[in-house]
Write a structure and sequence with these properties.
The protein has 161 residues and is of the alpha+beta class. The protein is built from five helices and five strands, in the order ββαβββαααα.
């Protein structure tokens, strides 16, 4: 027996999208498999690691803990919204310049978390950056270069403002 489908309409990276989804379809699966936006990574599937972090109405959220139907009428942003290879977002540029990634698996979730953080805290100190990063696990680094990259992105944004 086919499971009932529910209509949803949401904005994804600035584009209005409509779909029919099962009630139990996770947002992370919807983003990756239905929309083809594979930058949102799935790590633990328990909301612990932060790899699947997206912005839900501008607020960081774990895509593995939301159902796609919960996004009806809302806006989400994935890492694909940040920049292009030709025109990187300041956070992406700072991560490149400061070597803020190694394997890169956690990076999309960190970038989305830090995008929202820097919008609310344009001049953070190291302790604030580390606290904001505490919900994102990186198994490759000691976080030093990630913290440096976030600080650099904040400085660049302040200089440009």
């Amino acid at each position: 027996m086919a499971e009932r489908q529910y209509p949803i309409r949401l904005t994804v990276n600035g584009t209005e999208r409509e779909a029919q989804v099962e009630a139990r379809l996770l947002l992370s699966d919807f983003i990756r498999h239905r929309l083809g936006l594979t930058g949102t990574h799935v790590g633990c599937e328990h909301g612990v690691c932060g790899a699947c972090t997206i912005l839900h109405d501008g607020v960081p959220a774990r895509a593995c803990l939301l159902f796609a139907v919960q996004t009806h009428g809302h806006s989400i942003e994935t890492v694909e919204s940040l920049g292009t290879p030709e025109h990187l977002h300041p956070l992406q540029e700072a991560f490149r310049a400061c070597h803020g990634l190694q394997c890169g698996y956690c990076t999309p979730g960190i970038l989305m978390t830090m995008k929202a953080f820097l919008e609310q805290h344009p001049d953070p100190d190291e302790a604030a950056i580390r606290k904001a990063l505490s919900g994102n696990l990186c198994r490759c680094t000691g976080y030093q270069n990630i913290v440096a990259a976030v600080a650099r992105a904040a400085a660049v944004a302040r200089e440009g403002a």
